[in-house]
From TrEMBL:
NCBIfam families reported for this sequence: GGDEF
A Gene Ontology BP annotation from the UniProt entry: negative regulation of bacterial-type flagellum-dependent cell motility
EC number: 2.7.7.65
Listed GO MF terms: diguanylate cyclase activity
Name of encoding gene: ydaM_2
Domain of life according to the entry: Bacteria
Domain GGDEF: 240-373
Keywords (A to Z) from UniProt: Membrane, Nucleotidyltransferase, Transferase, Transmembrane, Transmembrane helix
Protein name: diguanylate cyclase
Keyword Amino-acid biosynthesis among record annotations: no
Catalytic function, reaction form: 2 GTP = 3',3'-c-di-GMP + 2 diphosphate
Biological source species: Devosia equisanguinis
Listed transmembrane segments: 6-25, 32-52, 58-77, 89-109, 115-135, 142-165, 185-208
């Protein structure tokens, strides 16, 4: 028991160091996990310090309240939920005041444990309840499940030892009590599970962030070529049909030369906003490179694709670009094609849309052109 008493806080300190190291330049939730395990370790060290029993109890409970506040904060940060900082701090302070009354006023171990257990269960349970529906990935669901087990363990422990078994009322009997032994074993097992679940969820979130960064254009926030390929591939199975729109700003190099690259970047960002506002939510929108944007819209007819393409062209030519530092008209061309029913993916249609885009440029710019298997037609005629 004495060796185990040192093993548990040592293990929690190692977890704390690991999470704090990850959080040094990583997500804030990792730092919160680190602090939670660090204060949790302090809570288990307090009863073996050479201090009066009342002071041991007060120190341990303060550490556990801070620890579970940090556990709750870590969940809220991880799932990007409102942190409710002030209410949780006020609750923790009120809970500690009640602990002080139980220890100093009544010198009652059962009352102290009841107040402390209910308080830490609430400090973790309320954040858990507010994030449970935000867990969409398997690692996040595992983390939520383990957190739920921790809260359940606290409630069951409170019922068993305070209601069924009973606890000696003397504060000095805590270290030798069956409650203390069960607490050490349960927390030892659950802390490992909690740490592994939290680390797995953090790593999964970080990898998703890196993947998103690799598939997003930093200027416009749209998908890049790689991201477009990844998202569009499963959206064009054979026979379902889709439309491809390739959008390209006319004489974009002159905009950069005459008004500067910063103005050119603002034009591209503005065009991205136009695409988001006009295209349906099912559209896959990407900046394919330079001033070229690629769009895939599933289950769309040629007439519908043409109407959207013209809407994009008109919105661009009618927009006042002076706020971007460009005091002249900005126009664009759009090449449109359909993914044929016999085509397994979007790539052949993309090539046809690309050819239609160049046909629109050759036809005088500020055009929308539709690609047919044997010709390119101005879409206002073809539609």
């Amino acid at each position: 028991m004495d060796h185990f008493a040192f093993l548990l806080p040592s293990t929690m300190i190692l977890f704390a160091i690991t999470f704090l190291a990850v959080g040094w330049s990583g997500p804030k939730s990792a730092r919160a996990w680190g602090l939670a395990f660090l204060f949790g370790a302090l809570g288990f060290i307090a009863p073996i310090l050479p201090l009066p029993f009342a002071l041991q109890s007060l120190l341990a409970n303060a550490a556990f309240l801070v620890s579970f506040y940090c556990y709750g904060d870590a969940l809220l940060l991880h799932f990007r939920a409102p942190r409710m900082i002030a209410p949780r701090i006020i609750f923790a302070l009120l809970a500690y005041a009640m602990v002080i009354v139980a220890v100093e006023g009544f010198a009652s171990l059962p009352l102290e444990l009841t107040v402390a257990d209910i308080s830490v269960a609430i400090l973790l349970g309320v954040p858990l309840a507010s994030v449970i529906w935000r867990a969409h990935t398997l690692p996040d669901r595992v983390l939520v499940a383990v957190a739920g087990i921790v809260v359940l363990d606290i409630i069951v422990r409170l019922f068993i030892f305070n209601v069924l078994v009973g606890i000696s009322p003397a504060l000095s009997d805590f270290a030798a009590s069956s409650y203390a032994y069960y607490n050490q074993v349960a927390v030892g097992v659950l802390s490992v599970g909690f740490a592994l679940a939290a680390m797995g969820s953090i790593v999964s979130q970080m990898l998703a962030g890196y993947r998103s960064a690799a598939e997003r254009d930093p200027l416009t926030g749209l998908l890049n070529r790689r991201g477009f390929d990844a998202v569009a591939a499963p959206m064009t199975p054979m026979g379902q049909g889709a439309a491809i729109l390739l959008v390209d700003v006319d004489r974009f190099k002159l905009i950069n030369d005459d008004f500067g690259h910063e103005a050119g970047d603002l034009v591209l960002a503005g065009l991205a906003d136009i695409l988001r506002s006009i295209l349906p939510g099912t559209a896959v929108i990407s900046r394919f490179g330079g001033e070229e944007f690629a769009v895939l819209i599933p289950r769309l007819s040629m007439a519908e694709a043409g109407a959207l393409a013209h809407g994009i062209r008109l919105a661009c030519s009618e927009r006042d670009w002076r706020l971007c530092g460009v005091d002249r008209l900005v126009t664009l061309c759009v090449g449109v094609s359909l993914v044929l029913s016999e085509e397994p993916n979007w790539k052949a249609a993309f090539k046809r849309a690309d050819s239609a885009l160049y046909a629109a440029k050759d036809d005088g710019r500020d055009r929308v052109m539709f690609a047919k298997p044997d010709a390119y037609l101005a879409i206002e005629r073809a539609a």
